[in-house]
Structures are given as C-alpha cells and as structure tokens.
Amino acid sequence: MAAKKKSQKSLDKWTKQKGRTASGKPSPQGRKATGEAYMPAAQVKKLKSTEAGRKKLAAANRKKREATKQGKQHAKHGLHKGKKR
What are 27-52's pLDDT values in tens digits? Predict the structure, then answer.
C-alpha cells in the first residue's frame, strides 16, 4: 500500500472531526440546503460561547445563505480565515 498524499491525510483528518451546522440541522447535498456554514462541532461550541462569536457565526451564515441563493457551493464567510487549506 502506497503512502497517502498530503491531501488524502488532510481529508482523513477532516472526516474524523464531527462536522455540523450551528443549528444542528443537517446540511444536505443536492437537496434544499440550510444555508449555514458547516464546521467542526468544537468550533461551533467555541463560537456560540461568546457574544462576539455568535455575531461572527450570524455574519457567516448570512454570507453562506447569500452564496447559496446565487447557486454557489462555497462562500467566503471568514470563519476559516488564517487556517491552512
């Protein structure tokens, strides 16, 4: 078995995180989406714990919903800013 590429390792790491939306509702693909940013549960918990975090989350969800209305899959909402991708 060959060693995994960097992108494969990254995907494995991302898959192990418990991803969710802030509301806890599913974010379905191909069906009507919630229009919420999808991120690790730990990040949601951290954002919801402060007023500033809740404002960031609300702003990110507004940007995500607007992008969804325009038919875009991804939105630059700023919650992943500064993180290596």
Answer: 666 556 677 888 888 888 999 999 99
